[in-house]
Each structure stands twice: as C-alpha cells, then as structure tokens.
Write a structure and sequence with these properties.
Number of strands: 4
Shape: globular
Number of helices: 3
Number of domains: 1
Mean pLDDT: 87
Strand order of the largest sheet: 1-2
Order of helices and strands: EHEHEEH
Helix content: 25-40%
Distance between the termini: 64 Å
Length: about 120
C-alpha cells in the first residue's frame, strides 16, 4: 500500500537531518523506488552525500539525467536569493561544478593533511 497516489508530488525539506551518511545514501535508493512508482519528488538538501548518491545513480545508468533537476541558490548581493538550474551530463557530472559547495571540505582536508605532515617524527 502506498500513501501517495501515482503522479503525486511529494515534497521533503532536508531529509538528511539527523541521518548518518550511509543512511542518507540508502534514503536516496528509497527515493528512486518512489520515482519508479510514477511519483515526483521535490526536496531541499545541503547534503553532499545525497547529491553524490544521485549523481552516482546517473553515472551508473539507474537514473536518467533528465529525471533530475538541481537548482543552486545563492545570494550574490548578500540579500536577494538567485536560483540557477545546473546541468548534469550522462556521467553524473555537474557542468561548471558546484560553486561554494565542496570547497570548504577540500580546504579543511588540505589543512588537516598539512598539519599532519608537519607532525611527522623521524624514527
């Protein structure tokens, strides 16, 4: 039994809240099952785990790129929000990348590795 009719639009705000990254990936798999039933999903997320899982499904051919739309919101003037639709290719790559989305993680990892390399003590 399903709770939503076929062709229903289901909206979810930040489904990743309080979920372990592995559970977020599993949630995306469940979302794909919902899509296979003919329903549509609209959700907001800040989760790179959810986004990577969706892009992985596209690259693996389990999700068509035309079945996913990504809108990126930013405030270029610090006040007014601007939405941009991002293009995804058949390999799950986002054209132009995801501005401001992953850079912090990369910078943090780089700093962490730099600190670790300075702590090395020769035997």
């Amino acid at each position: 039994m399903t709770l939503a009719d076929k062709d229903a639009l289901i909206m979810i705000e930040e489904p990743e809240i309080s979920l372990h990254p592995k559970a977020q990936a599993a949630l995306v798999d469940i979302m794909l099952e919902i899509l296979e039933e003919g329903k549509q999903l609209l959700f907001t997320t800040h989760s790179e785990h959810i986004l990577f899982r969706l892009l992985t499904h596209i690259a693996a051919g389990r999700l068509r790129k035309d079945d996913l739309e990504i809108y990126y919101f930013e405030k270029p003037d610090g006040v007014t929000a601007k939405a941009s639709r991002l293009e995804v290719d058949d390999k799950g790559r986002v054209k132009g990348g995801l501005r401001g989305f992953f850079e912090h993680d990369v910078e943090e990892l780089s700093e962490y590795l730099k600190v670790l390399s300075h702590e090395r003590v020769s035997p």
